[in-house]
Structure formats: C-alpha cells, structure tokens
Amino acid sequence: ARRQAKQLSLGMKIASFLGALGLAASVFFLFYQFWGRFATGTQVAVLVAAPLVGLAGTLAAARREKTGYVAKVLGLVSLACFVLNLSMLGRIFNIAPSENAFLVWAAFALLLAYGADARLLLAAGIVSFAGFLSAKTGTWSGCYWLHFGERPEHFFPAAVVLFLLSLIPHPRFTRFAEIYRVFALLFCFIPVLILSNWGAASYLGMTREAVEAVYQVLGFLVSAGAIWLGIQKGWPETVNTGNVFFTIFLYTKFYDWWWDWMPKYLFF
C-alpha cells in the first residue's frame, strides 16, 4: 500500500508539473496573441493584476490543500505572469534592461516557494538569484551585465552564498536545504569544469594551459571534499553530486590523455 501511494504521489507530481508548464505557456502565448488590441491602461492593469491574483490563489490553495499539487501549479503560473509582467512593462515604458530584474523575479519566486512549500519554485528563485548575483559580480569586474556568462568565475560568489543559506535550518519545508546545497555545488562545479577545459575565460593572470591545470586540480579537490563533507554531515545529495562531478573530471582527464591514441573499445 505504501509503494502504491508513493507511485501515485510521484505520478501526481509529474502530472502537476506538466500541467503547470502547459498552463504557464498558455498564459504566456495568450498575452502575446491579443496584447496589441488592448489600450495602454488596460495592459498595465492586466500585467499588475495577473501575478497578484496568482499569488493570492497560490497561498489560498496552499492553506486548504494538503497535497500541494494545485498550489504548485498556480505558483508556477503566477511566476510566469510575474516574469511577463516585468518584461512587458519594460517594453511599454521603454525601460532599459537591468540585472535587477533577476533579483525581483527571485524574490517573487522565493515568496511563492515558501508560501506553497514548492521545491520547483525554490529552484526557480535560486536560479534567478544566482543570475542576479553573477551579473552584479560581472558589473563590479567591469563588464556589461549581459556578458556576465562569458566569465564562469562570476558564479562562484553565488555558490558560496547558496551554500551558506543551506546551513540555515528549514524544519517546516520539505528538503529546501538540500536544494540550496545542490545548486551551490552546481554553480561551483560547472564553472570549474568549463575553466578546466577553456582557460582563456579565466581572470587568472596565467597562461591558458596553467589556468586549465589549476582548475583541473581544483575540480578533483572540491568534488572529493564535497563527497567527504556529505558523508560526515549525512547529506546524500552532496555525496551524489560530488560523485557525479568527480567522475566527470576523471573521464575528462582520461580523454585528454588517451583518446587520440588509444582504441575506443580499450578506452572504455
């Protein structure tokens, strides 16, 4: 009975996720289909009202429904409306794009996530917050904020902040601390993996080969450290993420050493 209930719960999670994506996409394209026919005042009123109505519906559903499926669907739709809200208002009033939009999106997504206990919305908020902090780091380094992705090292401060946030207890929320840790590791390991193979994108004042060697060693050390820390603290998601990236770093190095001259069947 417990296995059947678990399978039903997983099926409902998948169905609610797909339904939320479909409904959010429908709202997005519905706006674009009829948007030009509305007056400016009507456009502004709709843009302001849509996410507020969605937020109220999400919080109401979270209080009344124990499973949380409806709340998560409404939350994702509300977030889509809010993202569309800022984008369309910027076009209407000719507002210059800014990295601060990521921070506003993150705040709204986190509000929904904590109100509905929704890990998917928490992930959306984390990604938006990491985008803001990385873009802000890029502007502090002297580049235009839209080009922050050209320097993978811009994501390291976001990884540190997210890991620190994971240390805050979340007793009333389902696996929120684990989501923070996983994304902290992703925003650390992925830039290290990129820089270990593309040293020209680094800020380090060394040759490309030296930068790649530094980040290759760092990748092994940090991934092994994540495995050790996960075992010590009893964090299985940290152990698994460290294992995955340790394996990726290992196979990447094997590829550099042996792929060109070793027969493929022997390599694998």
Architecture blueprint of SSEs:
Blueprint: H1 2-34, H2 40-64, H3 69-92, H4 100-116, H5 119-140, H6 156-166, H7 176-195, H8 208-233, H9 236-258, H10 264-267
Helix pairs in contact: 1-3, 2-3, 3-4, 4-5, 5-6, 5-7, 6-7, 7-8, 7-9, 8-9
Protein structure class: mainly alpha
Tally of alpha and pi helices? 10
Mean pLDDT, as a whole number?
86
Can you count the beta strands? Answer: 0
Instruction: Give the SSE order as H and E letters.
Output: HHHHHHHHHH
Given as residue ranges, the uncertain stretches (5+ residues, pLDDT < 50) are 4-8
Q: Largest beta sheet, briefly?
A: none
Can you give me a brief rundown of this structure?
The protein is mostly helical and 268 residues long. It has helices spanning 2-34, 40-64, 69-92, 100-116, 119-140, 156-166, 176-195, 208-233, 236-258, 264-267. It is built from ten helices and no strands.
Descriptors for this entry?
single chain; 268 residues; mainly alpha; 10 helices; 76% helix; globular
